[in-house]
Amino acid sequence: MGIRYFISLCLGFLLYYGLLQIFLVYFNETLSNYQGVDQMGIKLYEIPEMLKRIYEKFFTLSFRAQYSVNLTKITRKAFLFSQVVSLVLFGYLEGRIRVSVNVKIWNAVFFILFPVGVNGIIFMCFHSYIYSLMVYGVVMVFAQPVVLLELVRQRAGNEMNQHILGKLTIKCTAALTVAIFLITALNYVWQANGNYVALYYANRQTENYFAGLVERIKAVEGYQAGLPLAVIGDNFADAKSLQFRYKDITAFSYGGNPTSEGLINAYSRDNWLNLYLGFSHERVSQEDCVKLGEKEFVREMPCYPQDGSVQIIDGVIILKITNE
Description:
Layout: H1 2-26, H2 47-59, H3 73-96, H4 101-118, H5 121-124, H6 140-155, H7 157-161, H8 164-218, E1 229-232, H9 260-264, H10 269-277, H11 286-293, H12 296-299, E2 310-313, E3 316-320
Parallel strand pairs: 1-3
Antiparallel strand pairs: 2-3
Helix pairs in contact: 3-6, 3-8, 6-8, 8-10
């Protein structure tokens, strides 16, 4: 059954890839380079390094923060508990259940490959930044001991139930597993709430920052709706002064842009101005902005929010945000 599912996944990937190539050619488009999506795939010579990283990530879940999924001591200890209990239960099942040697070998192979399934995203994004939304497979670390415990109860239950100690061991292990996972779930609830509170205030700070920016632009002499906007520079030089302090609380930082500084300088900045503030001016191309930035009068302009950082020259709104 597992092999059939794997073959189904492979066929699904081939179907996706084939349709992707057809549509790229039909619409004369290329994939975005966001998160390395245009370079996803497996290079044979990199497989050993990929496997090394996969197993390293799996076996360090209990003491090293990864993907923002184990930022607290509680979650790290829960991962350790799951891995240890899974190993003990698997060893017991392999030794006790009466099946053929071939079945035991296949069981061992799939147990050894379990970390590959958990961290399979590394195959697809080996050269990219991987964050919490991309690693839902990690939750299977918590599911594994539950499945194995149920197998022990079903397959070895009769033998163990003949002994009070064995019966008690099953019940205690089950109760301990439930208790630890309940505490872990509550910990994740606390983390998520803190993260969303941090994002809420970061969003409000970003909104206010851009509202002030729009007012400054509209107050410039000669401003008219519809004038093109040229932004000179990539990042607002003064944004660091707005660093939202929730980022200092590691447990509430799930990756992405959890601070107002990150949001102000995010790639989606233009969309934020358009959608949140209704400021939708035509943007001057990046190439033309670079050329403008090389002109003497632009180099002499101060950076936002200093006076003179926003000017209208030759029918173009010039906003200088950094000297770099």
